[in-house]
Predict the 3D structure of the following.
Amino acid sequence: MGLVQFRVTKPAIRGASLDFSKLSVSPKLVELTDPTRFTEETDMCHPTPAVLALQQAIPNSCPAKTLDPSQRLTLAVHALVGHQTITDLANEAGVSRKFVYQQAATAQDALQDAFASPQVAEDQVLFHLPVTKAWLRQATLALLLICHSSLRGVLEFWRDLFDVSMSLGTVHNILHSAVDQARACNQRQSLANIDLPALDEIFQSRQPVLVGADVASGYCFLLSLEESRDAETWAIRLLELQDRGLAPTATIADFGTGLRAGQKLALPGVPCRGDVFHALQETTLLVTYLDNRAYNAMASHHHVQRQKTKTQKQGERGAQGLGKKAFLAGQAESQAVRLADDIALLARWLRYDILAVSGLPYGDRCALFDFVVAELKARQHLCGHRIGRVRTLLKNHKGNLLAFAAQLDGDLTALAKDYQVAVETVRELLDVQVLEERQPRRWQREAVLRQQLGDRFWGLSVAVKEVADRAVRASSVIENLNSRLRPYFFLRRQLGADYLTLLQFFLNHRTFLRSEHPERVGKSPAELLTGEPHPHWLEILGYRRFSLN
């Protein structure tokens, strides 16, 4: 007489389905009527007919086992949806909560398997690509323009990946064959929608390239290689652009004399705003220089003091002379530190108050600007070669740098009139919006404005934000364009007018993959300028793009 043993495996579970934990009667040892049919081994036992008969004789009263597949599916779906708690579902079905969780997990696994990406073998053919001469030409253009490849890099790509031999002249001809269509597309584009363009100059191999772009859309309307960047050259190019509809209300640029003189000749009466970035950059360089000089003065004073102390301890001669040097070094240190602190304070006023988008009135900005210039002049003798340069820049371009503030002042006054509130209230609302959201002061001041404005608060706050977003202080768009041009210029020792024409066309018709402005993503500068979609740039050039569909 002995116990019957089973080896539990997945097939055995599916075939036998023994579950002694839910039997309605207690399991008992069954005496085998035919002991000779039981075979005992060290690692394997087989179920005997007697045990199978015992299993069939036990009544199946478990509610979970009585559920058919459709009922289990319904139970799992309800558990995944979450409209009822697991406890309620278990009570309604007469099963345990553990069973409900098991059915939900099974359904979840089935859903993941259904929507999972199919596993593709590394050597499996994904699709077939019909390679024609036209496809080779458009792929060559894509390598040159999208991937910033050099001409010889294209040759290496075709040789190593496609076993195609292509000459350098062929790549050159493919590149220039697209110039005519690109030039025609550039010339057809109307520039009437450009209200505020940014102008700049970039150099390649000591040759100037005149660059112009629309601030709102980023559309590049000027990319011209020239022999000179004087006023006549700029005036000629701007007059040519006027024939295509360019009529801006204002422009924004740095302080290049040729650029500004050329605009005055071609666009008389159109103001050229100053780029705040360049002014602040010069101020920052001055602050950094004075800080470093102050630290050097502190180090020199400390060094002389150590020498003096060492000489006095050793009783050597010369301590009196070192004492005088230490006194003079201390004076130089105090003067350098004081000057660095003063200039840093003036620079902070310039950056965060005078040249910032805030509610500060235009008249107050002008007064503070004059005060900063006067204070710089009072300290110019302490570091003339550095302070004098910054003071002259600020003095000569005061009106250009504060032009954005004059427009901002007018827009805020118009808002105050439209909403019938005091202009000081509108300025306060702008100052509140400029504060960081984590600052408690913002919410305290905003609460006061909400109570004061009532139901006008929301509409006025949206209008103020739109006005602030329209305030253009710097030609950041042109600097961004220059940074995109640099990788193309780097690959070429000499630039040609044809290459720049094709590059201008490509940059205007390729879509933005990412941007700080969500409305620009997936759109090209040409589409943002006109508000109308256009075909892919390869299709504009006459090519047919490959599609898996």
